Amino acid sequence: MRQPIALFLVGIVACLAVAELIRADSMPPAAPSDDAALTLADCDTLALHQSETIAIQQERIKETEGRFLQAMSAALPRASFVLSDKRQDGSGGSAFTLRDVPENRFTFSQPLFSGLKEFAAMAGSRAEHRQRVNERRRAEQVLLADVANAFYVLREQREDLQTLETTRLALLQRIDELEQRERLGRSRPSEVISAEAQLRRVEAELESARGLETAARQLLEFLIGRESLPAIVEAAAAFPPPLDPEPAYVSAAASRPDVLAAEQAWRVARQQVVIAQAKFWPTVGLEGNYYTRRVGVASDVDWDALLKVDVPLFQGGQALGGRREFASRARQEQLRYVQTKRAAALQAQDAYAKLAAGLARRAALEQAQTAAEEDYRLQMEDYRLNLVNNLNVLQSLQALQDARREALHAAYESKRLYWQLLVDSGTAVISRPPAHMESHRP
Question: pTM for this one?
Answer without folding.
Answer: 0.76
